[in-house]
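Q: My labmate handed me this sequence with no annotations at all. I'd like to see what the chain might look like in three dimensions before we decide whether it's worth expressing. Could you predict it?
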Amino acid sequence: MEEATRAAAQGLNRVAPGCRRRAVASSHETSGGSVAERTYTDADLATAVAQSRSWRGVLRHLGLLATSAGAARSVRRRAELLGLDHSHFTGQRRWNEDDLRAAIAGSRTWMQVLDTLGLARGSGTETIRGHALRLGIDTGHLQHPRSRTRTSEPILTPDLENLSRAGPVLAAAWFTLSGHEVAWPLEPCRYDLAVSSRGATWRVQVKTCWKQRADGWHVSLSTSGHPTGGQHRRTVYTAEEVDCFFVITGDLDCYLIPIAVVAGFTGINLSAYADFKVGVVSLNGTGRSNPPDPSPGRP
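A: Here is what I predict for the chain of 299 residues:
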């Protein structure tokens, strides 16, 4: 750390020999948009940058408010004007710019980059891509991988972690295969699908659950906020909002439960609703189902 500090100070002397004056003679922008005098010298800034791991750390080192966006912009601009090296900054990350460059250079896919950096797959791909773009790192070999020649391993593998996103599509396919008409609401509302059959229409809310408890599959029948009401508390569905729930478990079992049966419940254990099971989704192209009438009285 001492060597880094000395190197920063030497670099400061080379880049801006005429700037080593008290910064009180200059000014910087505050978070409120006003202009305030700086209370640190360029040498203070060089030391802070060398000894910190983030821009907030630099602000704290200089005795400035770490949450001030204006101060952060001013300090960063000054540091870049002085040519201070901040490539060692990681913030909350466990890797720095050199780690990212090495990971990209030694990888053929973005998944390999994440593995090299010790990150969970899928959790930060876009963030990593953004960093690489800002740093000007060549990622052409990652963005355009060669087509696989081996056919022994599948290209696509379903993952139940995507069940919540796939749920409405699976439900729509089930209703369509059962001979019903399916429509999707154009605006945010409390139901996911509008299902029509024999001149009647039912509002269907799709729910999924892919983590099983010891006593069976539990599914939530409430939300943490009304999508159009701006609330921030658990809210149950009412008969004025939906007519029935289409539930898909991690075993891909499907249930069609009328609102009249579970009205007011924030969640249920599906082991008590075996009579409402209507089928099973199969990922290998086969399945079994017993298409019901999705009326509010009984599926």
